[in-house]
Amino acid sequence: MAEQSDAETSQPQYARRGSKGTIDMLVQSRRIASDEYARAQRAERAYRARKNATIARNSLRETKTHFAEGFKHLGLGVKGLIAVVKGAPYILGERRDGWRKRREAKQRERAQQMRKKLDERLARENSEDEGSGKAPEEKEEEKEKI
């Protein structure tokens, strides 16, 4: 065995160089940095999720409020529409009364104008009768002839 140990010592030994832990430290620091980066990403995702969840909750709350008001207004609109439908005959009746009153006023005005024209014509005829000396019965006979 002594020969072997002499032989081993006589042959150059290619032993691994001492790294002094530089590579090990680099690998370890890379792993630590990778873990810290992954942890930071998780924390950032969690922060964004909380932030977006808060915004979404506020939006949901506002949307619920708007929809509640919308449905309330829709209900009021439907109630108003029903009231209008129920009251439509009364509105139409009131308008018909207004139209009838205007029509009757126009008819009275026309009748009054016709009466006035007739009175003027009769007054002219009476004045002509007095001037000509004919009796009203004779004038009627003349009108019948025409």
Automatic annotation (TrEMBL):
Residues 106-146 have a biased composition (Basic and acidic residues). Residues 1-22, 95-146 are annotated as: Disordered. It comes from the Eukaryota. This is Uncharacterized protein. It comes from Xylaria flabelliformis.
